[in-house]
Design brief:
With 126 residues, this protein is mostly helical. It contains four helices and no strands. Helix 1 packs antiparallel against helix 2 and helix 3 runs antiparallel to helix 4. The mean pLDDT is 94.
Length: 126
Amino acid sequence: MRRAVGICAAALGASAVALGAFGAHALQSRLDEAALRIWHTAVEYQFWHALALAALAGLIPTPASPVWRASANAFIAGSLLFCGSLYGLALGAPPWVGVVTPFGGVALMAGWLLLGAALWRGKSSP
């Protein structure tokens, strides 16, 4: 579990760097200011949650309880849904794609709350 979460964190972090650079260089002259702000928000949230997932990977006990697994899964799903929908909207996806964004946001919040619950239970030692 710890290894898989760490790999997901690394993939989210690396892709955030790539997408941030892409937005700053390739999209700067192609998107309007509002779309670039949406893109920037997606990159920022992706970075923060890649870091959260990396920290979580270091905290997960062996064996991992369902709460730890749920927290990691919520961070991953939330990052994909929230950031992915924002990237799509910035690039001109149909407005209905925005319906996905709040579900991603709820998943990210759930990830934080589940992480807090796991830490509260005192099962953070590897």
